């Protein structure tokens, strides 16, 4: 294994469906051991990219590799893939289905049953082990599918909207389970539309737009690229110009400052107070990923919204 080599490498990937161009020269890497957020609006090509990476679709052009090679059965047992379309054998019992998939993934029957019992207990489904899968709710079936995906502790997890349709309590439980795999060293590539999940789990992200990368990098890098850190200030007096910030909004007793990349928040606060400004409120914040997402993809309700700057305490 070449440790320096990314686990997933995609270069100049193009995908056309007849005359429709869905992916247009996409390039990105997923490094070993990281959790990577694969983001983009509906229909932007995330599932298509995953399918091409896993050989389900033949790419129109480009390089798509896992561990330095086009995906093949060699890597199959090291991959856990949770597809967007869910589906297990619904007429079998939960335990039988989990054991069957465990055997397919190379576990012994005993190992598969042991994992299944522990997992079902963890996700609060221990009492449903002997029920037919189609007697479970949609969310419960999804929990089983995630269990099947992680049961052989794969080195790479590709999860297409793993928490879609879950209530907040179960969403947190599923994120905990994914985070445990990450802490155990798995590389995770995850599609989600939930930015708080991205902020909690992901080191790096890509945002797809029109089949290209609109933003790519660490969350900090993307936040800096789209406006970086801001300070909301309640004050009286005069705010001096400074190389450490730019004044982006100024009203009588309220202002917003955009920080220079090298400046730090407490240094700016000291500088403002040192210049004689009376500061009665100071909130430092990064631009949220939600805001950045809306900037990139457009806010359909923007035309009807008042221009709000948000509260300062
Ligand atoms: N087999 C196919 N034949 C024709 N068009 C397809 C096919 N698969 C996907 N597409 C089209 O490619 C585009 C991207 O679809 P894809 O499922 O990759 O989007 P996505 O980013 O995963 O969206 P979502 O967030 O809604 O799941 C869509 O316009 C879709 O209709």
How would you describe the overall organization of this protein?
The chain has 313 residues and is an alpha/beta fold. The protein has 2 domains: 8-222, P-loop containing nucleotide triphosphate hydrolases (Rossmann fold), CATH 3.40.50.300; 229-286, no CATH class. 32% of the residues lie in helices and 28% in strands. The chain has 10 helices and 13 strands. It has a 6-stranded mixed beta sheet with strand order 5-6-7-3-8-9, sandwiched between helices. A hairpin with a 3-residue loop joins strand 11 (245-250) and strand 12. Helix 3 packs across helix 4 (109-122). The chain is globular and about 75 Å long. Adenosine-5'-triphosphate is lined by residues 17, 22, 40, 42-48, 84.
- Sequence of strands across the biggest β-sheet: 5-6-7-3-8-9
Arithmetic mean of pLDDT: 89
Q: According to CATH, what is the class of the largest domain?
A: Alpha Beta
> Helicity level, as a percent range?
25-40%
Q: Calculate the terminal CA-CA distance, rounded to whole Å.
A: 52 Å
The chain-level structural class is alpha/beta
In CATH, the topology of the largest domain is named: Rossmann fold
**Count of individual helical segments:** 10
* Total number of strands: 13
CATH architecture of the largest domain: 3-Layer(aba) Sandwich
The share of residues in extended strands comes to 25-35%
Unreliable residue stretches: 302-313
Q: What is the 3D form?
A: globular
CATH H-level superfamily of the largest domain = P-loop containing nucleotide triphosphate hydrolases
Which value, in Å, is the CA radius of gyration?
24 Å
Topology as H/E string?
EEEHEHEHHHEHEHEEHEEEHEH
Family: Belongs to the ABC transporter superfamily.
Protein name: ABC transporter ATP-binding protein
Organism: Arthrobacter glacialis
InterPro entries: AAA+_ATPase, ABC_transporter-like_ATP-bd, ABC_transporter-like_CS, ABC_transporter_ATP-binding, DrrA1/2-like_C, P-loop_NTPase
């Amino acid at each position: 294994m070449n440790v320096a080599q990314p686990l997933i490498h995609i270069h100049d990937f193009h995908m056309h469906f007849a005359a429709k161009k869905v992916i247009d020269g996409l390039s990105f890497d997923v490094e070993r051991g990281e959790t990577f957020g694969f983001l983009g609006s509906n229909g932007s090509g995330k599932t298509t990219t995953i399918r091409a990476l896993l050989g389900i679709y033949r790419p129109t052009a480009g390089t798509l590799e896992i561990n330095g090679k086009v995906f093949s059965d060699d890597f199959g047992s090291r991959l856990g893939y949770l597809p967007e379309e869910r589906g297990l054998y619904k007429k079998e019992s939960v335990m039988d289905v989990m054991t069957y998939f465990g055997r397919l993934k190379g576990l012994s029957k005993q190992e598969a049953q042991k994992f299944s019992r522990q997992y079902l207990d963890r996700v609060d489904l221990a009492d449903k082990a002997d029920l037919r899968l189609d007697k479970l709710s949609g969310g419960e079936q999804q929990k089983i599918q995630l269990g099947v995906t992680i049961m052989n502790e794969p080195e790479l997890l590709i999860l297409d909207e793993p928490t879609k349709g879950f209530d907040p309590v179960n969403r947190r439980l599923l994120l905990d389970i994914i985070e445990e795999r990450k802490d155990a060293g798995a590389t995770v590539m995850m599609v989600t539309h939930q930015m708080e999940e991205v902020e909690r789990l992901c080191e790096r992200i890509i945002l797809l737009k029109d089949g290209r990368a609109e933003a790519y990098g660490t969350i900090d890098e993307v936040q800096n690229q789209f406006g970086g850190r801001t300070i909301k200030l309640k004050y009286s007096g005069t705010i001096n110009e400074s190389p450490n910030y730019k004044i982006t909004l100024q009203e009588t007793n309220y202002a917003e400052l955009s920080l220079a990349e090298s400046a730090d928040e407490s240094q700016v606060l000291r500088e403002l107070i040192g210049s004689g400004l009376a500061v009665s409120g100071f909130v430092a914040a990064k631009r949220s990923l939600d805001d950045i997402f809306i900037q990139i993809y457009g806010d359909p309700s923007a035309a009807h919204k008042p221009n709000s700057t948000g509260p300062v305490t």
